[in-house]
UniProtKB/TrEMBL annotation:
One of its GO terms (molecular function) is methyltransferase activity. The keyword Protein biosynthesis does not apply. SUPFAM superfamilies: S-adenosyl-L-methionine-dependent methyltransferases (SSF53335). GO terms for biological process: methylation. It comes from the Bacteria. This is Class I SAM-dependent methyltransferase. Keywords: Methyltransferase, Transferase. The keyword Cell division does not apply.
Amino acid sequence: MPYKPDDLFHGAAPYYAKFRPGYPPQFFTELRKRFGLNGTQQVLDLGCGTGQIAIPLAPAVATVFAVDPDHDMLAEGKRSAADTDNIEWLRGDSSNLDSLNLPPLDAVIMGKSFHWTDRTALLSNLDTLIRPHGAVVVVTGELHDAAAAPPWDDVVTSLRAKYLGPRRRAGSGTYQRTEETHFDVLVRSPFHDVEILQWQWNLERDVDAIVGLQFSYSYSNPTQFGSEERCAAFADELRTALLSRYPTGVVTEPHTIEALIATRSSGYIGHLRHR
Ligand SMILES: C[S@@+](CC[C@H](N)C(=O)[O-])C[C@H]1O[C@@H](n2cnc3c(N)ncnc32)[C@H](O)[C@@H]1O
């Protein structure tokens, strides 16, 4: 695996829970309809973070196995879902799913986490864990063209380079952009019937939310700055720069998510492991 899974988001969890926008209700409605979710399904949310998918999905299924390598992400998720009793929060990652003793799964959903995994090896393992008519759902938030970047991106990028250098960090290492798209990796996997869905909406953020959001990323979480003083200095400078561009303190930005819904071909009988 190119990254050490529990090394990527140190210190990010409270910012993640507070400042990441999550997913629109239409996304969950689509999952309900498409998979006929009726409270009997077993679903894995892999790389669940603080529960942006697991928590809204839980009322529609029997169990969500919410798996993440980051202890603090799981703790935040558990706290937010204190009243929900059908989410199992489990520490783990894409490379050790077999040790989690999961039941046969109806769906595996990955929200902005597939890029952290060894995608081909993971899909081949999921082929043994997902029921014959089950699905893999890969959700991404940042689309690949520059047009999808938020309008304040240049302000943040130049200030981040000043504090953390020009290369995109990823935990204690550097981000390695992969040439092959998620779509292409899925198409050559056992889950090769792939449909693409998108949802777009406008998001309103104030300047403090934009500042807080930066501490939720693998490349600019609090640990990257080395000290509370440097975090505070970055936050102050960013707030000032944003307010000078957006004197009202509020920015409206277009937001898009994309879901790749991947299934096996319809005649598939399966080779699910017996447990
Ligand atoms: C960007 S967050 C996504 C959180 C949430 N799913 C969402 O949609 O907002 C990515 C999550 O993937 C987790 N992660 C990193 N490497 C992983 C791996 N190899 N297997 C599973 N999860 C991983 C991180 O700890 C982090 O919580």
